[in-house]
């Protein structure tokens, strides 16, 4: 049995910032992760920029950032959460700067670039393609230097512990041994990220199968806006790259523009070499070109930087150009192929601006929270959201923990008695294909209904793990959560009979004023 | 990743150390695919009990998929499959947990 004032589940930027903030506010903290601490989440993979109104490149104010965020959200942002993101962003970014993250600088100030959907140069970054790893490393170092934070990796939370309707901790399994580990906590923060692993084409780590949503749902919490899955339009498609995040072309386009072309080598978005199309618009545009028979050979679009000389490429991306060469790619001579890839989830746990969910003493932070970005997230808001929401959740969880006694929890975790004979690794692949095909960026009633039917037939049982590392159990665990979360996304997508932002219904192509509202899910 | 229409299918024999012995799997692949792709294929198509460790899949960000391939310590996610036999073993200097998985967490981040 483990005990702590504050339990933080997930050690990406949101979880680590939450742990630091809670410790700073006087709590002892247990930070757990199913992978290694600070290496397995989405943050470490972020290669792009961070939107924040620090006004170093040109005058700015968080209210301008908020206006852009609300506009991008297509009428569905929870304005309180959006404001928290934009208003607290500068303080968090400057604190990260003090901790040595190394934001790129120009003429003595933070360099900021102009990303699509922003009204000015607002996005800070770490060269070269190193934003996420630098953020992770910086927070990891702070966490390591905070004695009030106990870190435990290889610990997967299988269920939240609920007593009298309140969260009192969690049940976990130590994956190398299969041992059950109950955790008593006065306050629990889920910083488990999003659900992009549900899709065959995704830019996620293996941990992004929607664990937090499934835990919260089974504990009685409300989820919101689950139909809004953001596809990043220009994820790498071909030729095969290794050792690079598929999102890498985003910073290339920030710095160098680049031309997005169809099979006739014509631009099909009104860009003229500028990187200005919103993500939902570009995703839709590429898929429509493919549907019209004007896609690239692997059913995407061409992206060309052939207007750039070797010297220009090297100045902008230094060692990355060598890594591309090692993959056989010379951008001065060839375009590459790109296509939409599941990247981020706008929906998630419903939380107030104090980050508490609808279950008392259960908090959420980062991408796991739904609502701040409405129906379409603005470029650069994800890391800002992770930092600001993490900090707020940590502070509020610590304030709660200071006022209440340590709860008792029941040591049993309740696994099912049957172990299914399926190959759960294969079932996960099947689910990912199904979601990509029918619950991806273009949706129809028929496709969604077919997906829902298949999802509901998939295995949702979780037996106890065998002693020692049990890889099949891990897959059964993931399949159970992914299946539940996939059902939420599909049902919400089926019910929303309009198109808005990341949710595009081919059978309901118009945006409907009557649908300017949220859908919530609770079991 | 999609398959170009004219690409030949290749095959690798992954000889994997599982405890005291080796087990071999024939793995079809396309030019450019990695050892990690091959291991994930084995788990989904042949044997889900095979223990491997990775998190970020292809970005070489998490550094969890380190193992020995043909006697050299590499990342499975950046090592390309080649036709013929490839010998896969767990890291020799770490405590073995199962198959290709070793104890790589820092000591102060383990369950005590």
Task: Tell me what the structure shows.
The complex is a heterodimer of chains A (523) and B (112). Chain A has 13 helices and 20 strands. Chain A is of the alpha/beta class and 523 residues long. In chain A, strands 1, 2, 7, 8, 9, 10 and 17 form a seven-stranded mixed sheet that branches. In chain A, strands 12-15-14-13 form a four-stranded antiparallel sheet, covered by helices on one side. In chain A, helix 2 (62-72) packs across helix 3 (79-98) and helix 11 packs parallel to helix 13. Chain A starts with a strand and ends with a strand. The model of chain A has no long low-confidence stretch (mean pLDDT 96). Chain B is mostly beta strands. Chain B has one domain: Beta-grasp domain (Ubiquitin-like (UB roll)). Helix content of chain B is 10%, strand content 33%. Chain B contains one helix and seven strands; from the N terminus they run E-E-H-E-E-E-E-E. Chain B has a five-stranded mixed sheet, with helices on one face. Chain B is globular and about 50 Å long. Chain B starts with 9 loop residues before the first strand and ends in a 10-residue tail after the last strand. Mean pLDDT of chain B is 92; it is low at 1-5.
Tally of extended strands of chain A? 20
Query: Beta-strand percentage of chain A?
Result: 15-25%
Low-pLDDT residue intervals, each spanning 5 or more residues of chain A: none
Largest sheet of chain B: 5 strands, mixed
Helix proportion of chain B? under 10%
> How much is the average pLDDT of chain A?
96
Number of strands of chain B: 7
Q: What does the average pLDDT of chain B come to?
A: 92
The total domain count of chain B is 1
Structural class of chain A: alpha/beta
* Shape label of chain A: globular
Compose a concise summary of this entry:
The complex is a heterodimer of chains A (523) and B (112). Chain A has 523 residues and is α/β, with parallel strands linked by helices.
């Amino acid at each position: 049995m483990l005990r702590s004032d504050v339990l933080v589940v997930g050690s990406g930027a949101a979880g680590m910032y939450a742990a630091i903030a809670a410790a700073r506010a006087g709590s002892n903290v247990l930070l757990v992760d199913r992978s290694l601490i600070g290496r397995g989440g989405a943050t470490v993979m972020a290669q792009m920029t961070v939107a924040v109104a620090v006004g170093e490149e040109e005058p700015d104010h968080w209210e301008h950032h908020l206006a852009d965020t609300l506009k991008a959200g297509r009428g569905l942002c929870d304005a309180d959460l959006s404001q928290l993101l934009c208003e607290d962003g500068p303080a968090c970014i400057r604190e990260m700067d003090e901790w040595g993250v190394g934001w790129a600088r120009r003429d003595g100030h933070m360099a900021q670039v102009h990303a699509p959907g922003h009204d000015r140069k607002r996005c800070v970054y770490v060269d070269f393609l190193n934003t996420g790893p630098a953020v992770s490393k910086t927070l990891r170092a702070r966490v390591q230097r905070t004695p009030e934070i106990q870190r435990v990796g290889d610990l997967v939370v299988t269920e939240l512990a609920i007593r009298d309707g309140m969260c009192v901790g969690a049940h976990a399994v130590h994956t190398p041994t299969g041992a059950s580990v109950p955790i008593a906590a006065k306050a629990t923060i889920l910083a488990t990220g999003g659900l992009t692993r549900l899709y065959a084409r995704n830019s996620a780590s293996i941990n992004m199968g929607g664990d937090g949503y499934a835990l919260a749902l089974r504990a009685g919490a409300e989820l919101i806006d689950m139909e809004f899955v953001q596809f990043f339009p220009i994820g790498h498609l071909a030729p095969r790259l290794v050792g690079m995040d598929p999102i890498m072309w985003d910073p290339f386009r920030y710095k160098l523009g680049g031309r997005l072309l169809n099979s006739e080598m014509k631009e099909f978005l009104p860009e003229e070499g500028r990187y200005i199309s919103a993500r939902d618009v570009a995703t839709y545009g590429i898929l429509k070109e493919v549907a019209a028979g004007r896609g690239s050979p692997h059913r995407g679009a061409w992206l060309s930087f052939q207007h750039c000389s070797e010297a220009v490429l090297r100045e902008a991306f230094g060692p990355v150009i060598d890594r591309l060469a090692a993959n056989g790619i010379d951008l001065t001579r060839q375009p590459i192929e790109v296509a939409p890839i599941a990247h981020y989830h706008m929906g998630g746990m419903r939380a107030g601006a104090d980050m508490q969910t609808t279950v008392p003493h259960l908090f959420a932070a980062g991408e796991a929270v739904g609502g701040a970005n409405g129906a379409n997230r603005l470029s650069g808001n994800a890391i800002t959201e992770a930092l600001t929401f993490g900090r707020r959740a940590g502070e509020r969880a610590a304030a709660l923990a200071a006022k209440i006694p340590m709860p008792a929890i029941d040591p049993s975790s309740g696994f099912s008695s049957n172990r299914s004979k399926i190959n759960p690794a294969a079932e996960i692949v099947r689910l990912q294909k199904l979601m990509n095909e029918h619950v991806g960026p273009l949706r129809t009633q028929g496709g969604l209904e077919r997906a829902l039917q298949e999802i509901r037939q998939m295995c949702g049982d979780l037996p106890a793990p065998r002693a020692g590392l049990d890889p099949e159990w891990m897959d059964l665990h993931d399949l159970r959560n992914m299946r539940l979360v996939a059902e939420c996304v599909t049902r919400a997508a089926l019910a929303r009979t309009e198109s808005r932002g990341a949710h595009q219904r081919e059978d309901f192509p118009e945006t409907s004023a009557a649908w300017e509202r949220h859908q919530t899910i609770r079991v | 990743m999609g398959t170009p229409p004219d690409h030949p299918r290749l095959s690798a024999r992954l000889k994997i150390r599982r405890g005291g012995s080796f087990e071999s799997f024939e793995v079809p692949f396309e030019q450019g695919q990695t050892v990690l792709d091959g291991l994930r294929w084995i788990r989904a198509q042949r044997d889900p009990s095979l223990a491997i460790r990775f998190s970020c899949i292809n970005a070489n960000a998490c550094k969890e998929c380190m193992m020995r391939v043909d006697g050299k310590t590499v990342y499975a996610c950046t090592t390309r499959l080649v036709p013929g036999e490839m010998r896969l073993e767990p890291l020799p200097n770490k405590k073995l947990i199962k198959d290709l998985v070793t104890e790589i967490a820092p000591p102060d981040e383990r369950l005590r």
